[in-house]
Amino acid sequence: MKRFLKLMVLLTIVFAAPSCKKGYLDINENTNAATSSSPELVLPAVLNNTASNFITYFNYGAWLAGYQANAGGYSFSGSTYFTYNWNSGTNNGLFNSAFSDLRSYQYIITSTASVNKYVLFNAVARIMKSYYYQILVDEYGNVPYTEGLAGVDNLTPHYDDAATVYKSLVSEIDAAIVQLKANGTSTVVTALGSADVVFGGDVTKWIQFANNIKLRILTRAQDGPLASFATTAFGTFSSEGFLTEDVLINPGYVSTSARQNPLWNTYHSTYTGSNGSYAAQQIPTRWIFSFYNGTKLTDGTRGALIYKNYAAGTTPINQLGNETNVSSWISGYPAWYIGNATGLNAPTVQGILKSRVMGQLIMPAAETYFLLAEAALKGHALAGDAATNFDNGIKASYNYLQKSGTTTTAATPAVLDAYLNTYKAANATSYLVNYGLTTTAAQRLEAIITQKYIALNFVNGYEAWQEYKRTGYPAISGTAATTTFASLQSSATTTDRLPVRNLYPTTEYNLNPNVPTGLNVYTSKVFWDVNTN
Asked: Phi first, then psi: what are they for 275, rounded to 5°?
């Protein structure tokens, strides 16, 4: 509790509090605000903020990737969300929230650059800086990188070429890993200790997580103009390998005050028990439900772990799980997640919304396994073959869902194997589930990305959206509710009727003459997007 209170206080200082939401252009100075702090305080505070800001990408991805839609009977102010007729005032939080946290990570990097005792903090900040910049590049392309985090010292930073930034991120990750390997067991440097609210000071896990981020970057870059670079870099991973466990941030969430898990707070209920802002308004699309109820695939096990009152063959009309099946809201109930108690009485459960104090998942083990499966498919022998990693990804998805509340106990291998066998048997003729049925490289990639899409359902829609842009999977067709996740009101001119990017915020266009212009949300793809959709 004391640690969390310190984090909340620290979040008010200028380099860790993004409330003004102006991206990197913070021109107003508060002379009464703190201007410096120790890495031991800044790191947990910004990691906490990263967990909170993750919800911005979470919600955006859930919409764009087809995981959620607006519930019947609820108004929605963001009409441009339905039409994709985006402008520089749309989705600004994606850009601004990233730069808010990036300034804090850069503060750690800059303030510890010549202080050897803080080398571990420096390395972790560099890893998280790379984590955020990839997110920005994937949605915006060119971004302020070399000059982007100088704050008031440079209010008009240069926008760096997106492909060049990607290469720099790999170098940054490699350098951070070198720091961690050289100092991870040192007794003369300051240990991460309790300041590390992700891995509890485990340096090896930070190295492995860094490898995960690098793998994600190279996977996305491998078929574009950086193909040659990516091929070489695939052979440069640290020997520590990859982290095949769920990556969670938990700064010490509590259920008795306004410091509970941000996902729960948004999609279930506040700490006082009132409905979360999206709890009733958002429902699953018929499209995503079709991957569970037999329309596309059959998976009653994971379906029942995610959706309240799940039954094979049902469709989400109004609120799935609303027993009266009308658009009105049953006070205190999450609209479509499992769990059957109201408000403050909501119990610890399995599924997506596990408890008020659950850790915030930022990279699931399932995603890592599917990245490794694709790497093996493309000829990069990193850790296991494609088929094994494919199966492990499915099992890891189930494993995360079956955990409840604050429990992090994995299912036994026997339980995981039993689930996988049941899933395969229920979809005995589908190569999307049974990897051994694939006969072409295209089918194998489709199976991997489709299963990654299912595993990321309401876990990380942002990554699912980027992977769709890159590969075109899961495959969509037509305009029916179960054949596409594109909005029926789409204004997009693309074949799939979906956008390909966001525009930079209005503040960037107004204040920085270097911001790229002439961009189109339907045609101006980021450098790695060579898909023809």
From this structure: -60, 140
How many whole angstroms separate alpha carbon 499 and alpha carbon 486? 9
Q: Can you tell me the mean pLDDT for 173-185?
A: 97
CA distances from 108 to 11, 112, 127, 134 (A): 14, 6, 12, 19
Nearest CA to 58 out of 245, 276, 223 is that of 276
pLDDT computed for residue 429 by the predictor: 98
In 3D, which of 163, 210, 179, 20 has the Cα closest to residue 97? 20
Outline where DSSP puts E strands in 297-377. 360-363
DSSP 8-state assignment for residue 224? S
Please identify which residue in the block is written with the tokens 């049902």.
Answer: 314
For residues 503 and 516, give the distance between their C-alpha atoms in angstroms, rounded to a whole number: 9
Cβ count near 482 (within 10 Å): 18
Distances (CA, A) of 409 to 119, 245, 369, 395, 412: 32, 11, 19, 14, 9
**How far apart, in whole angstroms, are the C-alpha atoms of residue 499 and residue 523?**
8
Tell me the CA end-to-end span of the chain in Å, nearest whole number.
50
Q: What is the number of other CB atoms lying within 10 angstroms of the CB of residue 428?
A: 10
Mean pLDDT for all residues in the chain? 87
- 37 token code pair: 């702090």
pTM over 0.85: yes
